[in-house]
Design a protein that fits this description.
CATH class: Alpha Beta
Distance between the termini: 30 Å
Strand order of the largest sheet: 3-2-1-4-5-7-6
Number of domains: 1
Number of strands: 7
Low-confidence stretches: none
Helix content: 40-55%
Mean pLDDT: 93
Largest sheet: 7 strands, mixed
Length: 223
C-alpha cells in the first residue's frame, strides 16, 4: 500500500535528522567496511554507462563513491541531507572531481529530472535508509533511459542464524541509526518482479562476510 505524503515526509525528516547527526563522523565509521561494496557497485555502474555516460548517484551522502567513478563520466548526486552534501562538495573541490556535475538536495522519491535523463543510476546503501524503497526505485527507474541500468548495493536481512538475531535486536534502534538492520530482500526483489521492463542481470554477495548484495538491473529497450 503506498504511503501517504505526510507519512513519507515524516520518514524523510527522520532520515535527514539521522544523517545530519552521522555526517561529521560518517567517513570514519563507514568508509573502509563498506569500501568493497562501493567499489564493486561503482565498477558495475561505470561498465554499464560507458566512457561518457550520464550517471545518477542516489543517496550520494558524503560522496565516497564519486572518486571511484570514471573521470570521463557525467555524474549527478542527490541526497536529502544537506550536511552530508556539504562534505561531498568539499571532497569534490579538494580532489578536483570535475566529472561531478552537480550535488543536489533532493528527495530521492520525488526528483526533478526528466524521464530517461540518465544512462545509469547507482543506489549505494540507500534502500534500507529511505522510508519508501519502492517509491525511490520507481522514481529512479523513471529517470533512466530505456536500455539503461540501475545498480543497487545494499544490506539485506539474513533469514536465520546468529546474524538474523543480531539484526532483530538492532531493529528497535532503526530510527536512531537511520537505517533498517532487518531489511528484507523482498523490498527490492518484489519491485523488480513487478516491473515488465526490468531484467535482473546480476545478483552478487560481497565482502565483508557477504553482508552486502549488488543488484544490476537492466531497463529493457522500448518495443
Amino acid at each position: 500500500m503506498p504511503q501517504s505524503s505526510a507519512t513519507s515526509a515524516h520518514g524523510n525528516m527522520r532520515t535527514e535528522a539521522a544523517y545530519s547527526r552521522w555526517a561529521p563522523i560518517y567517513d570514519l565509521i563507514f568508509d573502509l567496511p563498506f569500501h568493497p561494496g562501493r567499489l564493486a557497485a561503482a565498477q558495475a555502474a561505470a561498465a554499464a554507462a560507458g566512457p561518457d555516460g550520464a550517471m545518477l548517484v542516489v543517496g550520494v551522502g558524503t560522496g565516497l563513491e564519486l572518486e571511484l567513478l570514471p573521470p570521463t563520466s557525467r555524474v549527478t548526486g542527490v541526497d536529502i541531507s544537506a550536511a552530508m552534501l556539504d562534505i561531498a562538495r568539499e571532497r569534490v573541490a579538494r580532489k578536483g572531481l570535475r566529472h561531478v556535475r552537480g550535488l543536489l538536495v533532493m528527495d530521492a522519491g520525488a526528483t526533478e529530472f526528466p524521464d530517461g535523463h540518465f544512462d545509469v543510476a547507482l543506489a549505494p546503501y540507500v534502500m534500507s535508509v529511505v522510508p519508501n524503497p519502492a517509491r525511490v526505485l520507481s522514481e529512479t527507474w523513471r529517470a533512466i533511459r530505456p536500455g539503461g541500468r540501475m545498480v543497487v548495493m545494499n544490506h539485506f536481512a539474513a533469514e536465520g542464524g546468529p546474524r538474523a538475531a543480531i539484526e532483530t535486536a538492532m531493529e528497535k534502534f532503526a530510527d536512531w541509526l537511520g537505517w533498517r538492520p532487518k531489511f528484507p530482500y523482498s523490498a527490492v526483489g518484489d519491485w523488480i518482479a513487478a516491473q515488465p521492463d526490468a531484467e535482473l542481470i546480476e545478483r552478487r554477495e560481497l565482502a565483508p562476510l557477504k553482508l552486502f548484495t549488488l543488484l544490476d538491473i537492466r531497463k529493457k529497450p522500448a518495443q
